[in-house]
Amino acid sequence: MDWGMKNRLSRVIAQDGRCFFLPIDHGYFQGPTSCLERPGETIKPLLPYADALFVTRGVLRNCVNPDTNVPIILRVSGCTSIVGKDLAHEALTTSIEDIIRLNVASVGVSVFVGSEYEHETLKNLSTIVNQCETYGIPVMAVTAVGKELAKRDARYLGLATRICAELGASVVKTYYCEEFEKVVQGCPVPVVIAGGPMCETELEVMEFVYDGIQRGAIGVNLGRNVWKNPHPVAMMKALRGIIHENLTPAQALELFNEEKSNT
User: How confident is the model at residue 147 (pLDDT cuts 50, 70, 90)?
Assistant: First the structure.
């Protein structure tokens, strides 16, 4: 791995080997998502606690202050929507020239293993890896399932993450599941947990984040369970405590309640 690639990875993954990515890319297929209608305002108090921001180029250019020191992971796949026929029918949206122009630390692209468009999305991953390797830019593969949430088991996710690593991804983002350690053990590159749908309680979020890290994940890419929470800053601090300070879920919940009472 070249120095430039190592340097960019060190910007998104902290010295302790852990990471907390804040995604706000949901609008690329959902439109003005609830609590993310004005993304710049949503993320302003949260950025100090994020290791990286996962975002599209349109929102980056128009909603994120360019003097930020928070590294950027740029979403570079899309071209589908929730009202379209199939969320899996993605294409690459961003040129390598624009990736370089935006000075990002990494890029992210979704793959839909087992879907009708498996070949196309895996080809998207291969293409962007080929382009980014030339310039030392790491690629995060996202093992997406669209609306087929039943696919989120260790057997399927283990297959999807391994394929992403085999095709050259530097990091793979995937869902937490039972026997998550099997997914991690079969993937030769770092694994980051996706946030998924909203959880019913703060403790539920903290428990799956804690358990996923104990089972080998290096961190999380968590959005809705943070910025849809009535106390998003308190949630960021609590989850950061689990990721970077080895807090237990009970300790993180205590921190959350303390921070919540201070706001």
Answer: low
The third-level CATH classification (topology) of the domain covering 3-228 is TIM Barrel (3.20.20)
Residue 228's identity, in one-letter code, is K
Q: Which residues are catalytic, by number?
A: 173
pLDDT at 148: 62
Contact 47, 69 (CB under 8 A): no
- The pair of structure tokens assigned to 248 is 């237990």
Average pLDDT, the chain: 94
On whether the pTM is more than 0.70, the answer is yes
Report domain extents, the chain. 3-228
- 188, burial (CB in 10 Å: exposed 0-12, middle 13-18, buried 19+): exposed
Place of tokens 């946030």: 195
> Tokens in use for 80?
């589908």
Would you give the DSSP letter of residue 243? H
